[in-house]
Every structure is written in structure tokens, then in C-alpha cells.
Amino acid sequence: HTLCPSRSPPQVFNVFVSAEIVRAMTHLINNGMSMYWGTSRWSAMEIMEAYSVARQFNLIPPVCEQAEYHFFQRDKVETQLPELYHKIGVGVVSWSPLACGIITGKYENGIPECSRASMKPYAWLKDKIVSEDGRKQQAKLKELTTISEKLGCTLPQLAIAWCLRNEGVSSVLLGTSNPIQLAENLRAMEVIPKMTAGIATEIDHVLGNQPHSKKDFQQAH
């Protein structure tokens, strides 16, 4: 897979830039240098524009969007991208399922030495953890740990399985420090069958941040 580099998209997506990117990716695929291509941190509007350009000029459209998705970051994947998933088949390759380590529970009692948040380049992460919102998140993680224990898994495994249970998520990118951690996280696959509607509702109740889709909004009115 070839993902377009992350960028901060402009307010208005230039159709000519879109056409240039789609043509370049099509060239790579047609010449055997890649099999598929996807976008990274693009808006739903930009992805749809790329798809329209591909249809118009008989080019190859993107097949996935790389987006941040975890317990505390839900809006884009759950409200903006589902429409694209159902209309044009674009799936999500989600990243940071453990929110830069916050969801592992290791910051429950502060910032451990040698942790990522203790390093100077990650001062922004430390500030986030010790903030009022960060403390609230840690309290919610304690409640979620009760759910993970009920399912016989770790909190990270619950978090990864929760991401994968979304029908629009094709895969989850894992960042691990060692083989043991990787093997443990991969066991999240065993948790997916346990992610029933009831468990999902319990998690939503604890998080209290379930975004509302356009469909929900229309039904409410």
C-alpha cells in the first residue's frame, strides 16, 4: 500500500492538486510499483474529490484513509467516513488505538520515568495527561478496566478490539516496543467476538462521547 504523506489540508481542496495526486498514484500502480493507494488525514470532502477525479478520467481511486481512532478520538471515523465507506468502499486504516500509550493505563499514577511522556519531545503529551481532561480520561480508563477484566482481557486488548469492531475499519496500526508487547496486542483478535452490542453500550456509557451521525440527527428531528 502507498499512503500519501500526512499534511494539514487547506480549507478548499484544489481539484488540480487532487487530479495530480490521483494520476501519480495511478502511474505507480500501473507500473507495478504499488498495488493500492490511500490517503492520510484527508477530509471526507477531499477523498470524495479524489474519487470523482478518478471516475472522470478513468484513474485509480484511493482505497483507504489513515485516521486517528481510539476511545477518546471518534468523530471523524464514526461520523464523517462511514458515508464514504458505504458509497465508494473506502476503508479506514486507523492509527494510535492506544492514544500514544494513554490507554495502556501506565499514566494512572503520574508520568513514569523512561515513558514517552517523560521525554522532552513529548512535552505536549505530558501536558495532555496532567490536564483536567487527562485526569478525567484516567478515571474513565479505570471503569473500562472493569469491563476488560469481565471479558478476560487487558485494557489495551479491549481498546484495539473496540477499534476493529467498527465495520469501516479495515486494519489497525500498532506501535509496540518489543515482541512480547506485540504478541499481547495481537490477542485483541480473540476479544472481537466478545464485543457484543451490550458491551459496546457499556463502553459508550463510560466514555460519554459517542458522536452523532447525520442519520441520528435527522431521526431526532
The chain-level structural class is alpha/beta
Count of individual beta strands = 5
Summarize the amount of helix as a percent range.
40-55%
- The rough form would be described as globular
Short description:
By secondary structure, the chain is α/β, with parallel strands linked by helices. It is 48% helix and 9% strand.
SSE layout and pairing:
Layout: E1 2-3, H1 15-30, E2 37-40, H2 44-56, E3 64-68, H3 75-80, H4 82-88, E4 91-95, H5 123-130, H6 132-151, H7 155-164, E5 169-172, H8 179-186, H9 197-207, H10 214-220
Parallel strand pairs: 1-2, 2-3, 3-4, 4-5
Write structural notes for this entry.
There is one protein chain. With 221 residues, the protein is α/β, with parallel strands linked by helices. α1 packs across α2. It has a five-stranded parallel β-sheet. 48% of the residues lie in helices and 9% in strands. The C terminus is likely disordered. α2 links the parallel β2 and β3. The chain has a domain of 105 residues. The chain is globular, with a radius of gyration of 19 Å.
Defining key terms:
221 residues; alpha/beta; 5-stranded parallel sheet; 5 strands; 48% helix; globular; disordered C terminus
